[in-house]
């Protein structure tokens, strides 16, 4: 099997790779009910030593620079209460935390969540957090440019391995809110 983007030696459907995914991600794939069949979600094996975007693109294909997205966990604070959300933007951009995110969450202040919070609340590894399998009550803020892609490379929940998913499937994830201008720069 070949991946539609990048150059990977080991490509499988995500439903055939459940044992390689952390439990929240595997459960989300197992119970997927979106308009895109789960069989169109692919797992590609990748070296965790080259998981950071620039090195990853150099190793697995320049086309991934335009088709990769990063998922980060943010914390919004208002009146002493903290709420968590996830943001998904193209890898070549950064999340507009102090503008779009803060306003969308109705927070007085927004910032990236500490690593321990991000990994503890998601059950995923830092550097591999994916929008698939996040806590169901979290908002998932997605830059519109991500859902416009035919295929997007995202984390798998671990630093080893990635998922390739049709962009329109990402818009169907629980809590998804598609926003213009979430990714800047």
UniProtKB/TrEMBL annotation:
Highest taxon of source: Bacteria
Residues spanning the signal sequence: none
GO MF annotation: an example: aminoacyl-tRNA deacylase activity
Pfam families reported in the protein's UniProt record: tRNA_edit
Gene3D superfamilies: YbaK/aminoacyl-tRNA synthetase-associated domain (3.90.960.10)
Domain YbaK/aminoacyl-tRNA synthetase-associated: 48-170
InterPro entries reported in the protein's UniProt record: YbaK/aa-tRNA-synt-asso_dom_sf, YbaK/aa-tRNA-synth-assoc-dom
Protein name: YbaK/aminoacyl-tRNA synthetase-associated domain-containing protein
Organism: Streptomyces jeddahensis
